[in-house]
Amino acid sequence: MSRSSAASAPAILHGGGECGELIRAHDWGAAGLPALQDWSPALRATVSNIVNSPVAKVLMWGPDHVMLYNDAYALIAGAKHPRALGGTTADTWPEIWDWNARVLEAGFKGETLAYRDQPMTLIRNGQAKEFALDLFYTPIYEDDLVMGVLCTVVENTEKVAAQREVARVAGQLKTITDALPVLIALVDRDHVYRFANSCYRDWLGVAPEDMIGRHVRDVIGERVYADRLQMIERALAGEEVVADAFMPHRDGGDRAAEVRYIPRRDEDGRVDAIHVLVFDIEERIRREADLERQILERERAENSLRQLNEGLEARVVAEIEDRRRAEISLIQAQKMETIGKLTGGVAHDFNNLLQVVSGNLQLLAKDVVGNARAEAKIANAMAGVSRGAKLASHLLAFGRRQALAPKVVNLARLIREIDDMLRRAIGDGVEVETVVSGGLWNTFIDPVQVENAVLNLAINARDAMDGQGKLTIEFGNALLDDDYARTHEEVEPGQYVMLAVTDTGVGMAPEIIDRVFEPFFSTKAEGKGSGLGLSMVYGFVKQSGGHVKIYSEPGHGTTIKLYLPRAMGAEDVEVVLDGGPVTGGAETVLVVEDDPEVRATAIEMLGDLGYRVLRAGDADSALSVIESGVPIDLLFTDVVMPGILKSPELARRARERLPEVAVLFTSGYTENAIVHGGRLDAGVELLGKPYTREQLARKVRHVLANQTKSNRARASERSADLRLNPSRSTPPSVDRPCVVMLVEDDALIRIGTAMLLEESGVSVLEAGSAEEALAALQVRDVDVLLTDVNLPGASGVVLARQARERLPDLGVVFVTGDAEIPGDSAPDAVLLRKPYEAAGLQDALKRVWPHRSR
């Protein structure tokens, strides 16, 4: 540009920031455009609008699609700026030229296009990255001809990622709540629904997704809303509200329900929303009405038979009373079971979160040794984790979903062993007396849970006596007969060992006794208790096949009796785990965990203990690792796993292929996978979440040591068998399948490709990035590397080059949607273009696998 034209440029194009200055100073002749002062009015006006707009805009002008854009668009261009200014669209964005060519062709035909949250993979600053963009294409006319296309760009990448995460979490919550026979919803401070489960469809005939964002009044109606308004406001003020009410039903009438409004608090303790739980009690009302009709019918019959048989009348009345009590017990049991399922599911996710926090705190503790302040903060945080773990344990106990490890024990001896701890917990102001009946039977129970139950009962008793009074612990044999079982829910007639805890405290009214076993119910002042102590005791005893009974009156103290099933065998010998220093080992451990954060902490803790660690995100991937032939000493797997293949079946198949492998399960909630009848299956080793580094180290050594003993015993048996049968020989070896390392960051593509490979008899190891694949290749040999070219972090080309340094004969198949790949990356590599089918995939493998000699 000449001095005169440059001097006149500001009069032609005003402002525009950095890009405006660059446009004024640019030699447009080299780009095939006239000098700036010779631009047409349409071009000048459009560029002036672009450079002075705060929104990212780019104009693609002329047949070569020359790019002119503003400062906001320069941020999207990244390292391509300022070279892209005045360059062509094809040269600047080759990775999306197919897209741009299509929209430019439409734009130059005069079409206006708009795309919302369009996914685009762009090369920014040398890295391929996925973006979500709003794109608006507008043709720019000059003398009735389209001379350019203006694109307005709004980046929504972070918004779309946040929406996906919210959808994922909401999906998990919906799966849990949809499984419960309870109406569950979340209402914000504006009385607007933010969540609802599928029960609302069955009840109101309204799809849950249609309720979101609607006002409560619009969903349940003006009349019902007016009745509930006061309860909603009380809950939003911080009060938990429980009431019997009516709910409109899709059949056009009202149905009786128990409604609970539970405040939800934010991090600052403020109530930001309320949970709504609605229990259907129409069935209870119907049964009570049926029962009343039966009573009336029986009364008429009694009147006609009174003169004939007074004794018969008394028996009929007794039977009616029994049925009434059974009906009430059934309704209470159903309510407690529903709450138990909910708390069990919450405890599972909570324990996983606690494991991530606990594991990382313990790993961090090594890095701050000697820093007193940091060590104190970590200790405080670990104390919080312990409190959280105790809370989750109580939830599981109430829900009858904890993994019990029962033994035959003598309760009197067991409680005597914790006498000192018990006295320290309740203080010197409480007198403790223990009464043991002669000939006390043994009971089959989890010793740790019994100790926790007695400790909880003692602490409750101390609080009821305000730290001053007498506590009596009594043991005796008891027989609960058929008459007693008929009048008490879930009681089997038979012999029991009775443990009673009696205090001289304030006692309880009948309406309090009816609720003491509900979770989070407490008569203590706020902050003085969680309300889970008695619910934990109740759940544990019921899961163990026992019974709980409370005797109490206001002002006359309380007695709580636990009836635990009698055991006919002798008391079990207690096995004590190694109490020496924490040690690790050099064995190979396969960690199977679907939660990536829990998996990462477990891997780092085991690696820190010296173990070689392999990883898998689900049971199917773990089985692929096992079938590949890599030596594994310990399978460390979560119990609750996604997918069709479950962890117990994975352990069984692992032992079929690797008879000497040890198995250790871990879980925060075991469901029925390895726990049956409320008890841990025989021979199963379980490490509950959250666990500490020390607990993990000791448990791993314990399981490996036991497996070593078992392996030696089997080896001795095989040796003896061979001596007796020398004609027996080792079965012939079988050629192993091709082992493929599949590297693909798109989870759906990776899953589909893995299925195609496995169907053709190939053993597959999966990785989502080059870094993850390289880590796996440090401990595994593979035959073929099947990798996408564009990966997050290092590219597939870099991965192939580094993998070949370790495995020179490695076969390489590049998968890409681009036109070509660098030729020096792997000279003999095979290129497989997306999209591909099974035949193309198999052909690519055949071209690299048969020529390899491992």
Could you give a short account of the major beta sheet? Answer: 7 strands, mixed
Overall structural class, as computed from helix and strand content, comes to alpha/beta
Number of domains: 6
DSSP helical segment count: 28
The global form is globular
- Report the β-strand fraction as a percent range: 15-25%
CATH topology label of the largest domain: Heat Shock Protein 90
Please tally the β strands and state the result: 29
Helix content: 40-55%
Q: End-to-end distance, in Å? A: 65 Å
CATH class of the largest domain reads: Alpha Beta
Tell me the radius of gyration. Answer: 36 Å
Mean pLDDT score? 80
**CATH superfamily membership of the largest domain:** Histidine kinase-like ATPase, C-terminal domain
Pick out the low-confidence regions.
Answer: 1-11, 727-734
